[in-house]
Amino acid sequence: MKDTLLHNVSCAILAGGKSSRMGVYKAIVKYKGKELILYLLEDLYNIFDDIVISVSNSSQLRLLLNTIGNYENVRVLIDPIVRIRSPLVGLLTCLTGVHKEYVFVVACDMPYVSRKVVLHLYRQLERDELDAVVPRWPNGFLEPLCAIYRRANTLKKLMDRICLNDHSMRGLINSLKSVKYLSIEQLREQGIEPKVFYNINKLHEIEI
User: Fold this and answer.
1) Rounded to an integer, what distance in angstroms lies between the CA atom of residue 178 and that of residue 172?
2) What does the angle CA 135 – CA 136 – CA 141 come to, to the nearest 5 degrees?
3) Is 3 part of a structural domain of the chain?
4) Which of 71, 87, 133, 143 has the least CB density, counted as fewest CB within 10 Å?
5) Is-above-0.85 flag for pTM?
6) pLDDT digit string (tens) for 20-31?
C-alpha cells in the first residue's frame, strides 16, 4: 500500500480528444524519450490513491493500457458519445468517476506538471471553503486544466453549462460560487515556474 499525501483529492487526467493538431494519439506520444502520460503518472502517482484517466474511445483505451501497465488505483474511463468537442466531456467523465471530495484536473499533454504545483494548489483549499483554485496569467488567461475543483459543486455546474449549450471551461469556472485565482507571479514566488503550464500540441514540439 502506497503512502499517499492527499487523501481527500482525486486526480483526473484528460486524455481523450482527437489530437487533431498532433495527428496521432497524444497521450502516448514520446517526448524526450518517454510517453507524455508517464510524465504525469510517475510524478503524481504517490500523492493520490484515486486516479482516473478519461479517453474518447476503446482504441485509445487499449493504447493507454498498453502504455501505463499495471498502475494500482489508476482507472481508465471512456467518454460518453456526444456531439460536443470540449474538455468538458472528459471532465464530466472524470467527475462522475472519481471518489473524493476534491479533484485535481490536468491535461495529458502537460509533462512539467509536478506534485509541487498540486500541493501548493491544495494548500489554498485548506485555508478557505472553495469550489476551485485556478492559476491565472497576467493577461487573464486561465489554466483550468491544471487546477483543483470541488467535485460535487463543479459537476452540478458542468451539467448546467451543457444544458445551456455553453461548453467552455471559462464559462464553467465563472459559474462556480467561490474560486481563488493564483497569479503566475505568486506561483513563481513559490518556486513554481511558468514552464509547468507548457503543453505539447504539435509533432515538431516532440523534438524539443
Assistant:
1) 12
2) 130
3) no
4) 71
5) yes
6) 455 588 999 999
